[in-house]
Amino acid sequence: MKTQAESSRMRLHGGAVCCTILLTQLSSAVMADLRAVPGLNGVQTATADAVQTICPQMATLNGSGELSSTQQALFFRCRELVQTSNELQRSGASEFSLGLSEEGLAEALQRVAPEETEIMGAGVTDTSHDQLTNLASRMQALRTGLAINSTSGLAWNFESGSGGAAGDEHYSRLGVFINGIYGTGDRDGSAEENGFDYDAYGLTAGLDYALSDALILGLALGYSQSEADIENRSGSFDTDGNSLSLYATYQLEKIYLEASLTYGLYDYEGDRNIVYGGTPDAAAVSQSVSGDTEGDQFAYSLALGFNEAIDRLGLHVFGRVQGIDADIDAYDESGSELAMRVADQSVESLQLIAGGQLSYTIDQSYGALLPYIGVAFHFETEDDARDVTAQYLFDPTNTAFTFSTEEGDSSFSILSLGASVVLAQGRQLFINVDTVLGMEDVTSNTVTAGARFEL
Q: How confident is the model over 304-317, as pLDDT tens digits?
């Protein structure tokens, strides 16, 4: 027979088991499936899947006292989301619900995902293409002697087949150039990603030497900076980078071949504002996270072109292949229990470009004024949707989730307008304005100014 003490211990143990089972049942009851919320996009679905996986496990760990204070705060955030879903699906009040509509809950899921990191990839391709086109401008100037530089890589020759400097016995074989660039634009938001406004600045300077009348080799240094502000005060991202380039151009009569190789190192810094629930003046959750990382990139360009002149009218046509292969290092955010650990990313772009330019020479007392108009057609072949993998930094289960960015535009064009002033002794000043056409939900304008000298 059992003693009274043994019977008491059995009753206590049985009660603990019952309480544990009840706690598990209650935890399951409040964990409605976030993935069942109607109308979720890809980013929101991936986030919902991660939260739905994490939260029940964290509820168990929280009940046993195994969570740190920051991990517990993360659990409270995910519990709010799943109980909001529970309230919507079961039409009954839940203690920790945020009281959101289905649209509001979808927006909250968007806010707790790091989809803004896509802007880093956009900054990579934009800054690299700026450096490549600046180099293309310089090489055209070298071939023609009197030429227009433009960020589209377009130029012209008004000397009938002589090749400018190559046709001048007194030209210097050593030359320098410096180009400054400023760009501004915006991308509208979509169902998957927030829109943003951006400003970009850059500087390219180089030194080159003519090994012969046909072959010129050069070296250039570049600096780029871009600043993007995400719509609805959702945050901002800054990109700073330095690059080193080698370039060469070879001209035979009116036909030329040019090539460039560029290697760059870049720093990325960003802030995400996580605001959802409540009212605009008193949000249920209002936090900010920040992150910074580094990356490198390799860019290349190969072009074939043709220059022709009829009296004062100049014509230049070309075809170019230019590509970018970039890596962004993994990084950890800080500042909130909702901070993310974002895995490393790869960005690839390969563009086929065809373009042409018309120009006209106007004689002036100081030299020549050279207005022009040009267009370049870009065809992107590799800038597909990228996968971004992340996990909540303070998630004890280490549950990672992946979402895809939107695909880039497969084709667009750049319209160029500008003028160059050609002075004595191989000196030249220029200004150029580029406008991007044919990109969906994107506006972009770039102003470039620069100078070239012979030494």
A: 999 888 889 989 89
CA 440, chain centre distance (Å): 16
Question: Residue 123 — φ and ψ, nearest 5°?
Answer: -65, -35
CB 35 within 8 A of CB 55: no
CA trace torsion 372, 433, 240, 227 (10° rounding): -170
* pLDDT above 90: percentage of residues in the chain: 37
If we measure between CA atoms, which residue out of 354, 349, 304 comes closest to residue 322? Answer: 349
Residues 6 or more apart whose CB falls under 8 angstroms from that of 135 comprise 204, 206, 220, 245, 247, 260, 262, 301
Closest CA to 334 of 388, 372, 380, 288: 288
Residues 84 and 75: their CA atoms lie apart, in Å, by 14
Alpha-carbon distance of 206 to 138, in angstroms, equals: 9
C-beta separation of 167 from 435 below 8 A: no
SS3 215: strand
Q: Which of 295, 316, 313, 291 is nearest to 137 (CA)?
A: 316
DSSP for residue 425: T
Contact 318, 305 (CB under 8 A): yes
What is the pTM (predicted TM-score) of this model? 0.81
- Residue type, position 85, single letter: S
Q: Exposed, middle or buried: residue 455 (CB in 10 Å: 0-12, 13-18, 19+)?
A: exposed
- Interatomic CA distance for residues 390 and 311, integer angstroms: 61
Measured CA to CA, the distance from residue 288 to residue 113 in angstroms comes to 13
pLDDT digits (tens, 9 = 90+) for 138-165: 676 665 543 333 333 333 233 322 333 3
User: Which tens digits make up the pLDDT trace of 238-266?
Assistant: 989 899 999 999 988 889 999 999 999 99
Beta bridge partners of 310: 313
